[in-house]
Amino acid sequence: MESYFEFFYSSPNFEEIDAKSIRYITDKIIRKSDAALAVVLGGDTQTFEMKMEKWDELTHKLSSISGIIFLLAHTSSNKEVYNQANQSIQVLQRYGNGLSLNEELYKSLKKYSQSDDARWLKGYKKKFIKETIREFERNGFALVQQDRDTLRNIKDQLSDLANEFSRNIAEHQDQIIISEKDIEGLPEDYKNRHKMEDGMYKITLDSPSYRPFMRYAKNEKWRKELYIKYLNKGNPKNTDILIKTIALRNQMANLLGYKTYAQYVIEERMAKTPNTVWNFEEELTNKVKPKAEKDYKELLSITEGKNELKSWETGFYNNILLEKNYNLNAEEVKQYFELNNIFKGIFKICKDLFGIDFVKMYHHSVWHEDVIVYEVRKKHSVIGKMYLDLYPRANKYSHAACFGLVSGRETPRGYQTPHTALVCNFPPSTPNSPSLLSHEQVTTVFHEFGHGLHQLLTKSPLAAFAGTSVVRDFVEVPSQLFENWAWDYDILKEFALHHKTEEVLPKELFDKMIAARNVGSGLFTLQQILYGTYDLTLHDKYNPLTDESPNELFNRLQRQITLTAPVEGTDFPSAFGHLMGYAAGYYGYLWAKVYAEDMFSVFEKEGLLNPKVGKKYVDKVLSKGGSEEEMSQIKNFLGREPKQEAFLKSLGL
Ligand SMILES: [Zn+2]
């Protein structure tokens, strides 16, 4: 790891990494950062290069080492490496927190920001200094010492409360025990996995147990029972924690000069003000409702006689609807999506659209034998590296995500190329079958690959703005945009080949997939709007000490926004883990999707493989990262103001 440390063009030699070398490298990067910090602080030369670029260089080196260690903390199969990486990540996070609270550093950069040199800065340089100072001040540096101590204290309490909230959800265990006749509807392999010695079945609240049961179990009484238990995760402990959290977040925002916590959070996002988000949610509710009402009627029509649907019934009837009226067999679709073919297909799209090649690197150092490495080239020059770690293993991160390892950055020795890793959990091949993906998993691949492209195609001079270093309500634009390529027949027919016969995905089957695509899309979107509105209300228009309880508030909004009534005996807010992580930011996913669909309409019109549009997308958006306001990037690409039409159309409206 020593040579890697000096310069990141190379990659670490993963085979040589053990617990000891991780400890060593953690200590070393901290010592090096301290030395680099002295350079930023010292020196009388007040230039962007001496101050801001040095600061960017320091954080880039720190995050490049952290990136590798973070990856190992989520993927290593070596117990010692895994444990040490997890410890080191905490050490590095604490070190990073220390930097963001370093008063001497703040004063030094602030002084520079007020200098003559800084006053004439333009473009990304101006943006960088402005945002750096703002970040320090959002951490409390504009406050008097006493208030700063209070703020620190609030932050400590908040992070403890957030951990406790999540732990209460994760550790909450409950189940139903049912007999053979009550498990009717579930597939055999599910039954085998849940059968106990006495012949009864134990169904728990874990996803692989809960979700299929809600979808397939014919017994309505047990579905209801399990649903209520599921929506009591974290209850009753989390209600108090939530109330305390909201109160402290309010207090923190007030201390920093904001009216509400939402204002504090959204100020630095694309939306800028809570009001913009309120309007967004409201307008969308009105537009989506007709589709949701149509969905609801369609669901009712197959229930044979019901005139109302309860929350524990929608998943079940949705599944029947897909089978009966849309005749779509997910297993049949899977046969056309062999994992290697999917990646070949994506590489081909990237070649046509962006003129880049993914060249497989043999004998390249990796952290596990399953991992494959590609060098990314454009006209023979190397522009980045992508690792694929696609199959599940013990201790591995259990969802799908794109991990940034090294970000792009301009250096005196040339451009530091970005390195990225897709970490997923797709079914591995077996002696009888290659790795086959459901179409939902195929769109996941495209989604994560969209994040990967954002990182790989960056040209940002500063690491602070490279790749996915953009505001949170924009970061899901490139990923959701790229999902659309997985829904186009001309694209799919290039690589969706039956794994045995090599027959192309039949058009009739594809048409069925398209017909089923928007089944329930209105109901689903309303549910997302409910979550977003609830999160926003808690952080913008709610006083936990005097208003209704968090659960009463949720139930009221549910009645107002969605078509299904709240269920007696549930406490959704206690189980809603995202309230901690997103905190007034849940709206971001839908918000980004509206822009993603709008931008996709340009490709739809001019060609999904049109290199001109591809180039424009790279030039105006992907290459920029955060070096330009995200809204300007969107407008520059569209050549007009953004609109909602394409998004509504994508829902089937
Ligand atoms: Zn994403």
TrEMBL record:
<dbReference type="GO" id="GO:0046872">
    <property type="term" value="F:metal ion binding"/>
</dbReference>
<keyword id="KW-0482">Metalloprotease</keyword>
<dbReference type="InterPro" id="IPR045090">
    <property type="entry name" value="Pept_M3A_M3B"/>
</dbReference>
<dbReference type="GO" id="GO:0006508">
    <property type="term" value="P:proteolysis"/>
</dbReference>
<keyword id="KW-0645">Protease</keyword>
<dbReference type="InterPro" id="IPR024077">
    <property type="entry name" value="Neurolysin/TOP_dom2"/>
</dbReference>
<dbReference type="InterPro" id="IPR001567">
    <property type="entry name" value="Pept_M3A_M3B_dom"/>
</dbReference>
<feature type="domain" description="Peptidase M3A/M3B catalytic">
    <location>
        <begin position="213"/>
        <end position="652"/>
    </location>
</feature>
<dbReference type="GO" id="GO:0004222">
    <property type="term" value="F:metalloendopeptidase activity"/>
</dbReference>
<keyword id="KW-0378">Hydrolase</keyword>
<comment type="similarity">
    <text>Belongs to the peptidase M3 family.</text>
</comment>
<keyword id="KW-0479">Metal-binding</keyword>
<protein>
    <submittedName>
        <fullName>Zn-dependent oligopeptidase</fullName>
    </submittedName>
</protein>
<dbReference type="InterPro" id="IPR024079">
    <property type="entry name" value="MetalloPept_cat_dom_sf"/>
</dbReference>
<dbReference type="Pfam" id="PF01432">
    <property type="entry name" value="Peptidase_M3"/>
</dbReference>
<feature type="coiled-coil region">
    <location>
        <begin position="144"/>
        <end position="175"/>
    </location>
</feature>
<keyword id="KW-0175">Coiled coil</keyword>
<keyword id="KW-0862">Zinc</keyword>
<dbReference type="GO" id="GO:0006518">
    <property type="term" value="P:peptide metabolic process"/>
</dbReference>
